[in-house]
Fold this protein.
Amino acid sequence: MAKLILLTLVGLGLAFFRDHRSSYQRRFNVFREVEPVDLPNCHLIKGIEAGSEDLEILPNGLAFISSGLKYPGIKSFEPDKPGKILLMDLNEKDPEVVELEMTGSKLDLSLFNPHGISTFTDEGNAVYLLVVNHPNYKTTVELFKFQEEEKSLLHLKTITHTLLSRYVYIAEFLAHKIHVYEKHANWTLTPLKSLEFNTLVDNISVDPVTGDLWVGCHPNGKKLFFYDEENPPPSEVLRIQDILTEEPKVTQVYAENGTVLQGSTVAAVYKGKMLVGTVFHKALYCEL
């Protein structure tokens, strides 16, 4: 009897291990390799060496880029340097990035660890940035006002709340899905549909002109979280057109096995130009 129980427990353990391994392999797309989709007019952006995890492009072509994210389990090429916010003017013929100086209230810049970026413009055309920050791996939101003439950010406020660590994701990373909700005037949400992909979907940017979704993706999650410089994480950009229709059109705009760009997180477009950011690597500029 004891031997039978032992064999049963071993069998259950092996079954659990197989199921767990299968789930892990499926969620992280462990075995997927990328077939390159090349764009001829692309080049890496000089001055971005430690990631460009999120970016926002204003209607006037100014792009804000967060760089230098450090987080447990994620590779960092500059682990001892604080993060920064970069500016890029896509109206220029050969746009370059400029690091924005941060001034104002008591923000500890040595602990600045920027993640996501959102922007809004008030009725007077003043531009504000909301930046998710992880000082000492905690979570705050930093409010900045963009000062265009000085090429700087005026820090106005640090927002903290116990609910900041609870997120509602439209892109469900490990489930390979994008969920679509309808937002009502009373701020409630109604789920409309979900789209499933053969990739780990990350940040989503909406083209304000066409309504198309541009998504930075990770074709192979294992390579992202278990970094190997000999076999780096690939990059992928998807464009989703007519997402509210019965048959949205999904186009693989860019794909690369990591030799040029590692771990793409976000893509955004402006007047035929595209920026592609990464978790910890470089950033790509393309003329579409």
